[in-house]
Amino acid sequence: MGAFGGTYISQHLLVKYLPYSRKNHIIVSSLVACGVAYQVTAVRAKACQAAWMAAEDKHTFLNPISDRPIPAEEEDD
């Protein structure tokens, strides 16, 4: 069950305790699903980027680019 379905069903089960009417359930469920989708996409994109960079030997998980010292030939630029 996805974020939309879970949120929608939860709202129907908790309808007595929610401060908004039933006609807003789809809007709230859609917003929650969009937020979850954005978060999942951001995490997966970061993991994919790290995998590509590790495959290209530019950095590893233990030594990311931001922690590496600048080589001598690049300091002169």
Automatic annotation (TrEMBL):
What organism is recorded for this protein?
Homarus americanus
Q: Name one Pfam family in it.
A: TMEM141
**Superkingdom of the source?**
Eukaryota
Q: What is this protein's name?
A: Putative TMEM141 protein family-containing protein
Mind telling me which InterPro entries this protein's record contains? Tmem141, Tmem141_sf
